[in-house]
Design brief:
825 residues; alpha/beta; 8-stranded parallel beta sheet; 8-stranded parallel beta barrel; 30 helices; 27 strands; flat; binds cobalamin
Length: 825
């Protein structure tokens, strides 16, 4: 029988159960620290098979192959423990366990499934990490290739804490096999993934990519998952899977312990089943006893039905925009049409300018950004990919990929980190045949223009007829009406005065007849007329009145924004007039802020209501670092230096305060790791310029002394240490920089070999201060006489004394002054 059908028949019948934890069981059976658990598929198959059988006996229907970490980054292509050998053995073990179970329980034959288990790669993807998206797809593909023909019934991609990595894994699965696919991701207590996605975002991306079942696993215990499960059930149209840990792990005498007992787990999972989850299991710390208690209590309950949800959703990697009563504003400025400066930017490959346009529209209130980079003389597909890549690194707004070239759309959609809008398809058969398969594969909300082989219809009925044709063709590709947004085309009224009325009537008709969502490129209406904003704003208001769901518009147009904010306030779409009041209050200020910001580069970053760190009108260095604009940070630094600012002044008044603001946001959970990383990179770019400047302007050349610098073990923060290094070098010291995450022994060995008398250690986290202490202790015994100066944001004089350092230096300059005293004699 078709594997998908067999699985879904089982889900149809009632609850389906996953197995529980694996790591703790293998450790108890003797898995050594550092030993790869997947090698036991070959080394200790009897233990793996017994574990599977124990879970089947406990009532699990789906057992996971022991392949969580089996990927091409950890396992070689050849040899005894090659990826293929390990995965094949894992599948054999699981299937053997199912066979034994079915022999003992013939009545349960056909109810058990083997899932090829795929875990995360342990690396962040570019630009936040160093793994290329396509390389991640290739690595996952290897595991899929190794496992797909080994008799597994489905694939489980699990414990994903980055939706981008999940996308890479999903593509690898969908492109290389047709097994049913389950995606479960790991949320933290703020109910978000490490990179910021909430359940609505995860569901939008997963469903768009064609995942069969979506859910949550690991990190939290069942009780902390309640809110996440509620959200998943609320927005998913596919079954929801839930596999919690046996509580939040904690450390006791060096061992990881989990507090949730099988009875507690059972009670919590009964509650979770009642919320609408359909597949239930356990993750870290759960045992066959937990699973047995759960299955016994849940199996006879009646599950809630899985229902189709009507919401239209787009998303970036972290922010979902749900189409509701309030029209979604899509910024139109990233588009060369009629814009000389933008065309120039495209021709000159001035990505920075394009990014600025994006950020400006974000500040002005856009909910999403249209991206059109089509110019005949440039390679549009390559440019689309590059601009999408760069934009999605610096803005959380979802993107609308706008091109008539399917190749450009595909390049953008493939690497897009979220669920995009696709602009556009129309009623022409040829266009639908090219664009719908892309939307089906990558997900997306398709803008459908009501134009076909016959041209633009002259009546609202004509528009509705094309819309209907598009809905029907899309359905044949498996695309739902909620993922189509109809654009009945705003035509220039100056060419045909009736056209605006027809467009408005079409909006109403499409909504009324099909419950359809609609969108318009509003500004087209005024083409050829003076004071276009007047007409645009009035037309926009009329369109909103007819139920317009989204507008592609210029958020820089005061008239349009006034119309929009006032409309939302008047119709009760803006609770307590909050947005209206904020908008109105910002109006007189905006002008003065922009002047002030231009004069005093840097000050005034603020927390917006949405919680992200941004600044309204500034373009100073500090703001640029906060926003993570690398190239621009470099340029502005150069300008400041040329204008006479001193390197230390720039570091102290721009770099450090910017990172402090982002760090604060990170702590308050308004900023997520990707933004932190982008800011760190921008600070790094600024610092590179300072470094080059210092080298050019020259310090003293004669070497005054040799110093070892390192960020301690477990700590990868090195911006501060690098600043210290450059300043020391500038003052004539030779620095042996051992880098970051440096083992104490390596530091000691270098000091001995190089006969070093001063060591500088950096630590930025409370958790790495012990590694600093360990390094100092080792230096004291192995290299008596060597002085140690310590620094880094987390350190204080008190800490420094506690761990036995010779000196605490609060900044780079103080380090230099200390070095002067050490090497004076
Ligand atoms: C940038 C940054 C990052 C970047 C680092 C990039 C890089 N290449 O360094 C990235 C994004 C990679 C990162 C990752 C993480 N970060 Co971080 N990060 C920061 C941030 C925002 C700024 C640090 C910085 O560079 N400051 C600017 C420099 C110039 O200042 P500085 O280092 O203090 O250096 C000055 C002085 O201290 C001194 N100095 C520094 N080193 C030395 C050395 C010597 C010898 C001497 C004498 C003086 C000295 O001189 C310098 C110049 O004046 C801070 C928040 C903050 N405001 O500090 C969080 C922060 C340090 N990070 C934090 C955390 C938790 C993390 C992560 C665990 C996040 C995660 N969940 O993955 C990971 C850690 C990974 C690891 N194992 O280390 C926490 C630490 C909390 C704590 N108290 O323990 C902080 C405080 C943020 C927060 N508020 O939560 N982070």
């Amino acid at each position: 029988m078709d594997k998908r059908k067999r699985l879904f028949d089982q889900i149809e019948k009632g609850f389906v159960f996953f197995d529980g934890g694996c790591g703790t069981i293998l450790q108890a059976a003797g898995l050594a620290p550092g030993e790869l658990p997947e090698t036991w598929n070959l080394r200790r198959p009897e233990i793996i098979r017994k574990m599977h059988l124990d879970y089947l006996n406990a009532g699990a229907n789906i057992i996971l192959t022991n392949t969580f970490g089996a990927n091409g980054l950890k396992y070689a292509d050849e040899g005894e423990f090659s990826l293929r050998a390990v995965v094949a053995a894992a599948a054999d073990n699981a299937r053997a366990a199912v066979a034994s179970f079915e022999k003992l329980h013939p009545d349960k034959a056909g109810q058990s499934f083997v899932a090829l288990d795929i875990g995360p790669l342990g690396k962040l993807l570019k630009p936040f990490g160093d793994l290329d998206f396509e390389d991640a797809v290739t690595v996952f593909k290897k595991t899929v290739d190794a496992g797909k023909d080994c008799g597994v019934d489905l694939v489980l991609v699990e414990t994903m804490n980055d939706i981008y990595e999940a996308k890479a894994a999903i593509l690898a699965v969908k492109e290389n096999c047709d097994l049913p696919l389950v995606l479960t991701t790991a949320y933290d207590e703020s109910e978000k993934l490490l990179t910021g996605a909430d359940p609505t975002t995860v569901v939008a991306v997963a469903e768009g990519l064609g995942v069969d079942i979506v859910g949550v696993n690991c990190s939290l215990g069942p009780d902390q998952m309640t809110g996440i499960v509620e959200q998943l059930v609320r927005c998913a149209s596919i079954p929801v899977a839930v596999s919690p840990n046996a509580g939040i792990p904690r450390s006791e005498n060096g061992k990881t312990v989990y507090d949730v007992t099988p009875e507690h787990f059972r009670d919590s999972m009964v509650r979770i089943a009642g919320l609408g989850a359909r597949l239930l299991g356990g993750c870290c710390g759960t045992t066959p006893e937990h699973i047995a208690a759960m299955t016994a209590a849940v199996k006879d309950l009646t599950p809630l039905p899985v229902t189709e949800k009507a919401d239209t959703v787009i998303s970036s990697y972290s922010k979902a925009v749900v189409f509701g009563d309030r029209p979604v504003l899509i910024g139109e400025r990233i588009n060369p049409t009629g814009k000389k400066r933008f065309k120039e930017a495209l021709r000159n490959h001035d990505i920075d300018y394009i990014l600025q346009e994006g950020l400006r529209q974000q500040d002005l209130g856009a909910d999403a950004l249209d991206v059109n980079v089509g110019l005949p003389e440039i390679d549009e597909p390559a440019m689309m990919e590059e601009v999408v890549r760069e934009l999605q690194a610096i803005t959380e707004l979802p993107l609308q990929l706008d091109s008539s070239d399917p190749l450009a759309l595909e390049r953008g959609l493939r690497i897009y980190n979220g669920k995009a809008m696709i602009n556009s398809v129309n009623g022409r058969e040829e266009v639908m045949a090219k664009v719908f398969p892309l939307a089906k594969k990558y997900g997306g909300l398709i803008v459908a223009l009501t134009i076909d082989e016959e041209g633009i219809p002259e009546t609202a009925e004509g528009s509705a007829a094309i819309a209907e044709k598009i809905y029907l063709r899309a359905a044949a590709y498996g695309i739902k009406p909620k993922d189509i947004i109809v654009d009945p085309l705003a035509m220039s009224v100056s060419a045909d005065q009736r056209s605006a009325a027809v467009t408005l009537e079409s909006l109403g008709l499409i909504k009324e007849r099909y419950g359809g969502r609609t969108s318009l490129g509003v500004s087209n209406v005024s083409f050829g007329l003076p004071q276009r904003d007047y007409i645009n704003a009035a037309f926009f208001t009329l369109a909103m009145q007819r139920g317009l769901s989204a507008a592609i518009m210029n958020p820089d147009s005061t008239e349009m924004m006034k119309a929009y904010r006032s409309y939302c306030a008047l119709l009760g779409l803006d609770e307590n007039f909050a947005d209206y009041i904020a908008y109105a209050a910002a109006q007189p200020q905006a002008a003065s802020v922009s002047v002030a910001a231009a004069e005093t580069a840097g000050s005034g970053a603020e927390q917006t209501a949405a919680g992200t760190v941004s600044k309204k009108a500034g373009s100073g260095l500090q703001d640029t670092i906060i926003r993570g604009l690398k190239e621009r940070a470099g340029k502005l630094t150069e300008d400041r230096l040329t204008a006479g600012a001193s390197p230390m002044e720039i570091i102290d008044t721009e770099l450090i305060p910017a990172l402090d603001i982002v760090g604060q946001g990170f702590e308050n959970k308004t900023v997520f790791l990707p933004q932190l990383l982008m800011s760190a990179e921008a600070a790094g770019a600024s610092f590179e310029v300072i470094k080059a400047w210092l080298q050019r302007t020259g310090g003293e050349k004669q070497i005054k002394g040799r110093i070892v610098l390192a960020t301690v073990r477990g700590d990868i923060h090195d911006i501060g240490k690098n600043i210290v290094k450059v300043l020391l070098e500038n003052y004539g010291y030779e620095v042996l920089d051992l880098g970051k995450d440096v083992d104490p022994h390596r530091i000691v060995d270098t000091v001995k070999e190089e006969k070093i008398s001063l060591v500088g250690l950096s630590a930025l986290m409370t958790t790495t201060v012990p590694a600093m202490e360990e390094t100092i202790k080792l230096l004291r015994t192995e290299c008596p006489g060597t002085r140690v100066v310590v620094g880094g944001a987390v350190l204080t004089q008190e800490y420094a004394d506690m761990i036995g350092a010779d000196k605490y230096a609060k900044d780079a300059m103080e380090t230099v002054r200390y070095a002067e005293t050490i090497f004076a004699g």
